Amino acid sequence: IIKGVIFDLDGVIVSTDSLHYLAWKKIADKEGIYFDEEINHRLRGVSRIESLNILLEKANRVYTEEEKMRLADEKNNYYIELLKNLTPNDVLPGIIKVLKVLKEKGIKIAIGSSSKNAKVILERIGLLNSFDAISDGNDITRSKPFPDVFLVTAQKLWLKPEHCLVVEDAVAGIKAAKAAGMFAAAIGDAKKSVEADFILDSIEDLLRYV
Ligand code: B16
Ligand code: MG
Fold first, then answer.
1. Binding of substrate: at which residues (predicted)?
2. pLDDT tens for each residue of 44-59
């Protein structure tokens, strides 16, 4: 029995995944490093610094820790600039309806994101006060595929992991949900995950499972 649904943010509630791509692409181009959409899928759900490490796999030299910190900061500054253009119109289709139905059914709703910018994003899209709990990259040190962000969220909801269902667009996020002992529903890129309990062709499909 599902008592709480934990939503990933980037790629599930709002398409900030495409903004992450633009910001990383700018860094890659400046550094002369090959980067494409395929590599970008691997950055879904993982932390900023781990994302940079994946991007640097294609670099032809070694970067110092100091250089890495500078590049990660630079990327985040571009990304924050891009976030300023977000409005409530950027909430992905079907989300508002699904949140409303879940609330009506008495199911708790939460955000479990790896992003340190999660609250800024939720504020911009007008959903900061819509959830029973929000956990993000500031609550944890190990990001997805570790289960930490979802376990913290379940605690904030006062729910056991086995009563929670996670909605994710990242393969790393599905792994994290399963490692947390929760149900996992995959949408978008995560549909290729073999670990997901449910595959969603659209977010409304979620309502079949709760
Ligand atoms: P930031 P999610 C994740 O958010 C993104 O999918 C991932 O691409 C990003 O690297 C990570 O947040 C960290 O984001 O640089 O803003 O702290 O999908 O877990 O909501
Ligand atoms: Mg995501």
1. 8-10, 24, 43-48, 51, 75, 113-117, 144
2. 999 999 999 999 999 9
* Catalytic residue ranges: 8, 10
186 DSSP β-pair partners: 168, 199
Report the nearest atom of ligand 1 relative to the CA of 170.
18
pTM score, two decimals? 0.95
Torsion of CA 186, 102, 125, 168, to 10 degrees: -10
* Ion ligand 2, residue ranges at CB < 5 A: 8, 10-11, 169-170
| Closest residue by Cα to residue 153 from 1, 3, 14, 20 | 3
Residues framing ligand 1 (Cβ under 6 A):
8-11, 17, 20, 43-48, 51, 76, 113-117, 137, 170
- pLDDT, tens digit, 9 for 90 and up, residues 77-110: 999 999 999 999 999 999 999 999 999 999 999 9
> Is 46 marked as a binding-site residue?
yes
Task: Report the distance separating Cα 163 and Cα 38, nearest Å.
Answer: 34
d(CA 112, CA 6): 6
Sign of CA dihedral 39, 115, 143, 183: negative
Which residue from 118, 90, 94, 104 is spatially nearest to 187, judged by alpha carbons? 94
Residue 75, annotated ligand binder? Answer: yes
